[in-house]
Design goal:
Structural class: alpha/beta
CATH superfamily of the domain at 583-712: Class I glutamine amidotransferase (GATase) domain
Largest sheet: 5 strands, parallel
Oligomer: single chain
Number of helices: 22
CATH class of the domain at 583-712: Alpha Beta
Strand order of the largest sheet: 13-12-14-15-16
Low-confidence stretches: 1-24, 188-196
Radius of gyration: 28 Å
């Protein structure tokens, strides 16, 4: 008898003595096993009729796994109490109750997914539903094109889980398979040691030799599956600190060193070159090298990262670089700086400033100057690392795990220029999050809750921006937080939300994603890092297990099911993704740095236009200069008061070439980066300039914007009535691969939508639900989180 079996029997005996629930739990498992048998019988029948049962195979796999997991959880109540207890409220105070209820919760959810699987397959066998066979991923033969991943010659969307039960080899089919995904993580197994299976600072010895044991973590990777390598920047060796005591001064949260330090740059340059040489041509680099995990350098004194030693001070090297940057920026004119800063410095070498920066400086020239410099130095660091990597591997694809909230939120002291870094790397990289409930530490409702089933702003706003900047690049979300995040989780998470958010992210550009996170060993126990006392540098990790995907069979099953469906319709989804973006919102980093709520303002107009049947896009100075103006019809400038002279001149040049600009009012573009009033104003020239009145409403601006792109509006018209005046369904119309007309509809709203689909002449149309082959009329309902892909006749 094993220790776990003995523990289980003892708990059952105790439950019998106390009149508790052990027998009920056994009945739940028996019910699950009976339904599992029923589904497997139906699958045999389907196979005999040559019906694809890949989807059901996943239901069966997760059911068996979670029946096993539930038994482990039942035999280890105290372990789960601890894991719930290290998270925040409401889990901490309910840890005993949750740990006791968890096994039955898992069994109940297994029964639910089995019931759904049985009902669906019965409909398939009866001919009520016709499904496309799943386009399964060939994990060992992925082709990486410029802007698409291919499997067996067709577009494919890759999926997996972050971290993946640390230490499990690629050959372990219990964690690397079609159900959980099989992207090999060459460097995501990061915690708690800074140099665990990653490209890191500790590879290089002081004498210039290499740590051969650590190098094996790179060179000994099994070269069979598509994968990636990560530059883990969490620490710096003692020998570097002994030579350069300032080497970790001005560190970021996950960047444990000063990126301006000459010795640090030399060390990392050598490591990047060596890593490129050793891994060139290997499959583990097909998804590229992630140059950093969530980089940022918040310089604001009041920011939460100050508690974790981020940018508490800066090094003499950073200070010297800032002074050199100021001298170049001001063309050597110290008087101009003194006028802006209201100071009296004799020269640039004598410039002083408070640091960390008090947030009260926001909107003043000193704030702008340092924030702009901070972004430029971050871009310079990644440019250097990428150049050194490509000296070792000229073909190296790269991305950076950028946090989308660094773009979508209002703060701008973080040192990350999302546009510049998206341009720099050969792949788009991010770790987007969404949430279906408000943050657990907030008592008042968030604004999105009034209208939407989940918070999609960070994802959609940033993805549309990144895809506008780099429309021809693969997009790799290497740590998606759709299922849980630091302050967001719910044990009974709605699976409909999972389907909606994965679909939304994919049509907006996501080619490959790794969900946070998978931490179950095959026997059901948490992986090694989550056992014993949990004390990590990363404050989020210890609580990550509680109420995560590891305890939710319905959620992990739905992740795989929606990926199966999207991969079955990958060509149709790619057609939706490659649509032209006829309307562009002008984005200025200058306004974003200076204004306390610029992104909030920008989202107002973006949100209004997001539900009008076409993909939104952005225009910046660089986009206007580098991209074909035929890719859009008009540019909307909205509440963008601060722009550089170069940004202003680029908009004027666009008008000179015949472009169309809609200006919300005359206050936009009225100031330069330091807040000085601009004497010039835009002129129509050869183009078309529309300036809304001073008191024009947002709805009036929207109407005018839609008029400007009328010729590019879809041939179908979707009308929504959800009982409110606020739209919730985002939709796209596109010509499908076989010449048919497709419409994709996602109800992001919190209300059921009554929808009417007509052509431009006002006549109703016939359509087919492509996921089920069932007919849909011109009038139909779509529930919150609903997903439809229709073929229109």
């Amino acid at each position: 008898m094993t220790k776990q079996t003995g523990t289980f029997l003892m708990s059952c005996l105790l439950a019998l003595m106390l009149g508790c629930t052990c027998i009920a739990k056994s009945k739940l498992e028996e019910e699950a096993l009976a339904k599992l048998s029923s589904l497997e019988e139906l699958m045999d029948e389907a196979r005999s009729k040559s019906i694809d049962v890949t989807r059901e195979e996943t239901v069966v796999w997760f059911s068996k796994e979670f029946i096993k997991f539930a038994n482990w959880d039942e035999a280890n109540i105290e372990a789960n109490e601890y894991l719930f207890g290290v998270y925040h409220e409401p889990f901490r105070s309910q840890k005993e109750k949750l740990a006791k209820e968890l096994p039955d919760f898992e069994r109940t959810k297994v029964i639910e997914i089995l019931d759904k699987g049985i009902a669906t397959l019965e409909d398939v066998l009866a001919g009520k539903i016709v499904r496309r066979p799943v386009n399964k991923v060939d994990w060992q033969n992925i082709e990486v094109a410029d802007d698409v991943l291919l499997s067996n010659g067709k577009p494919i969307f890759l999926y997996d889980y972050f971290s993946k039960s640390v230490g499990r080899p690629l050959t372990d089919t219990q964690v690397y398979n079609d159900h959980l995904g099989a992207i090999f993580h060459g460097g995501e197994n990061l915690y708690p040691v800074d140099h665990d299976r990653a490209i890191n600072s500790f590879l290089l010895n002081e004498d210039g030799t290499w740590n051969e044991e650590l190098l094996k973590e790179i060179t000994d990777i099994v070269d069979t599956n598509v994968g990636f390598l990560l530059f883990w920047n969490g620490g710096i060796p003692d020998w570097v600190l002994n030579k350069e005591p300032e080497a970790n001064k001005g560190r970021g949260l996950f960047t444990g060193f000063d990126i301006d330090n000459p010795l640090v740059r030399d060390v990392w340059g050598k490591i990047a070159r060596k890593s490129g040489e050793l891994t060139q041509g290997k499959k583990v680099t097909q998804l590229g090298y992630i140059l950093s995990n969530e980089p940022h350098w918040y310089a604001a004194k009041e920011h939460w990262t100050q508690r974790y030693l981020e940018m508490n001070s800066i090094s003499s090297y950073t200070d010297a670089n800032f002074k050199a940057w100021l001298k170049e920026s001001y063309n050597g004119d110290i008087k101009a700086l003194n006028k802006n800063w209201e100071t009296s410095f004799a020269d640039f070498d004598s410039v002083t400033y408070p640091f960390p920066l008090p947030r009260a400086l926001r909107g003043k020239p000193l704030w702008y100057d340092f924030c702009r410099f901070n972004m430029d130095r971050g871009t310079d660091w990644f440019t250097y690392i990428q150049e050194e990597l490509r000296k070792g591997n000229p073909d190296a694809d790269t991305s950076i795990k950028l946090q989308p909230n660094l773009f979508s939120e209002n703060y701008r002291s973080h040192g990350i220029d999302v546009e510049a870094l998206t341009e720099l790397t050969s792949m788009i990289g991010d770790d987007a999050k969404t949430q279906w409930i408000r943050n657990l530490n907030r008592k008042k409702p968030d604004p999105w809750e009034a209208h939407y089933a989940y918070y999609w702003e960070e994802l959609s706003l940033t993805y549309d921006f990144m895809e506008s900047v780099a429309p021809e690049k693969i997009h790799f979300n290497s740590e998606n937080h759709f299922l849980s995040a630091s302050w967001v989780r719910e044990l009974d998470q709605p699976e409909e939300y999972v389907r909606s958010v994965y679909w939304l992210a994919t049509i907006q550009g996501m080619d490959a994603n790794i969900a946070w996170w998978w931490a179950r060993d095959p026997n059901g126990s948490p992986e090694d890092r989550m056992e014993g006392e949990l004390d990590f540098f990363d404050p989020a990790l210890a609580g990550s297990y509680a109420a995560s995907a590891n305890q939710q069979p319905h959620i992990v099953n739905e992740v795989t099911q929606v990926m199966y469906d999207m991969n079955s319709f990958s060509e149709e989804i790619m057609a939706i993704r490659k649509q032209r973006r006829p309307l562009r919102v002008f984005y200025s980093e200058t306004s974003a740095i200076n204004k306390p709520r610029h992104m909030t303002d920008l989202f107002e107009v973006y949100e209004q236009l997001f539900f009008e049947g076409f993909p939104m896009g952005f225009a910046t100075e660089k986009i206007i200069k580098k991209q074909d103006h035929e890719q859009w019809d008009a540019i909307v400038v909205y509440k963008t008061e601060y722009v550089t002279d170069s940004e202003f001149e680029t908009l004027q040049s666009y008008l000179d070439q015949g472009g169309t600009v809609l200006l919300d009012n005359k206050s936009s573009l009225s100031k330069n980066q330091h807040g000085h009033k601009r004497l010039d104003s835009l002129k129509s020239s050869k183009g078309k300039l529309i300036v809304m009145g001073k008191n024009a409403s947002l709805s009036e601006t929207k109407v005018k914007a839609l008029e400007l792109v009328e010729a590019s509006l879809p041939e179908l018209v979707l009308t929504e009535d959800n009982g409110t005046g606020h739209k919730g369904c985002t939709w796209r119309v596109v010509e499908g691969p076989n010449g048919s007309t497709l419409i994709n509809i996602l109800n992001l709203g919190t209300h059921t939508a009554n929808l009417t689909l007509k052509n431009q002449k006002g006549k109703g149309v016939k359509s087919i639900n492509m996921l089920t082959s069932q007919k849909v009329g011109s009038k139909f309902e779509l529930k919150p989180n609903g997903v439809l892909l229709l073929e229109v006749k």
